[in-house]
């Protein structure tokens, strides 16, 4: 063992597969892992963790307090707000750059420059075109795709007016944004303006800075992320329910294991197809393997899970542990959440680490020249590298934990419409009725990352989901939070029978859904925004998103992207519970605004709640308050209707 752990493996990770691999990492002499590095860091710097360190100009860094201003004169409130805005801007840039790449791919396909991909779902294309204001649905599919791609490209660069994507939100919510002056003009200008206003000597009013943060976040949720989800569905297909398995036990001893990791689906889509190619499979058998087993980590995992049923090896904190199994021939990464430590861990085994994106390379990993124009050839070349590496596997170092759970994933809004109303009667009405009658008390979207600095990984995520469904709250999940639910066995209809409260179980049994719905990757939080919008549009649950008995939660978040996500939910009128605070605790005024006064502006606020039991109580109380405000908690005396009563219903 190369180091002493402050937390033993069972204190670091909640699931037994991860615990087993942490013990194996010690035995194999892996120099460090994310949990040990977190422990080695010790207590974080209080100035940094509370947002009181200013590094924006080179008269600093400055350590700010109530009594001490920065060299430039910046107050504590200004510095804390600026730091938060800069993190949010970076998160928005990450999501939106993902969306931009997909839009450019759609344009290439539409204009005939790329024949590797195609329009997989023309129905989604036409629905999206209509939603974004392209009315003529009789034109050629590729021409319609070209027009939509051009519109989306303009959404990134638009300098005047406001994002066309905002029209997807309920009209009262659009009115709120307009009245506050926080409706974004374009995605890229919102990112640039956020960086500009947080520059030294620009915006000093913490409220104004935080309203600027809301603008940028709206450009993410209703702009870049919404576009990324939409174009992904058009190019790769709208997800529908699929069965698969989740956790490290999905790796296979007798097959060549290739792990995809990151967030962008273009390459992984081709890897799925290539891994089923007869020629590639014959090459795999020629080196003694029974075939190729593709598995995923993080949000790339969610993308190929919900469209192809590819098994999920784990979420963010399991990326190193997948290598520790000793059974992974190759891991291919793209962008976001890919740890720099991966090549170092891989040195203890035979695993090759490859990178596929020129903006996301590792110094000790091999870069592959992937472009969408040669996608299939590139995918096959990657798999051949894995095939060549299979004979180098050391059987004595292989230990795959026999731990995985079945999952049912792929609950797009189109799927929910069809499940509730059928192909010809698509409707959210049954869901609205279940909420109105109290069989479902409300809806909670649990999203975000896992975090090695926040207790036992996955514990808060899983405990919160279990307790909410016991209390008849329907849970929607995306990203690493969704993977955590899969590992815990919460993503199957059978979970409703074991865990859900009686009325939620009744609803799940009637329509055959899990009590926790897997809705995709982290950019697919836009699906949750649209699900909430459809609830409003269906009627009976208020006129705006802020009226709904709905709430968001990010229990173990760690990424700047999660900051953007949380803000666009609050900007949309939906409260958000955070398992640990933003770096705002250094400013009482900034924290007070975010956790209180902001509700006067947008109708929602943040809750900083590190204790999961208190989070459950807060969420349930919030849902009941919304139900009371809607008047749907009134007890109505049951009455046997006669013919006169029936006539008066005007049905």
Set down the secondary structure blueprint.
Layout (H helix, E strand, L loop, with lengths): L8 H4 L3 H13 L5 H8 L4 H4 L3 E2 L7 E2 L12 H35 L11 H10 L9 H17 L13 H10 L6 H11 L8 H31 L5 E5 L9 E7 L2 H10 L3 H9 L5 E6 H11 L3 E3 L4 H6 L3 E6 L8 H5 L5 E4 L10 E2 L7 H15 L15 E5 L3 H9 L7 H8 L5 E5 L12 H12 L2 E5 L1 H9 L5 H6 L3 H10 L4 E3 L6 H14 L11 E5 L5 H12 L4 E3 L9 H15 L3 E3 L3 H19 L12 H6 L3
Parallel strand pairs: 4-5, 4-7, 5-6, 7-8, 8-9, 11-12, 11-14, 12-13, 14-15, 15-16
Antiparallel strand pairs: 1-2, 3-10
What does this entry look like structurally?
The chain has 651 residues and is of the alpha/beta class. The protein contains 27 helices and 16 strands. The protein has 3 domains: 71-236, Substrate Binding Domain Of Dnak, Chain:A, Domain 2; 248-397, Rossmann fold (3-Layer(aba) Sandwich), CATH 3.40.50; 411-630, 3-Layer(aba) Sandwich (Rossmann fold). It has a 6-stranded parallel sheet with strand order 6-5-4-7-8-9. Helix 6 (122-131) runs antiparallel to helix 10 (206-236), helix 10 crosses helix 24 (560-571) and helix 11 packs across helix 13 (298-308). It starts with 8 loop residues before the first helix and ends with a helix.
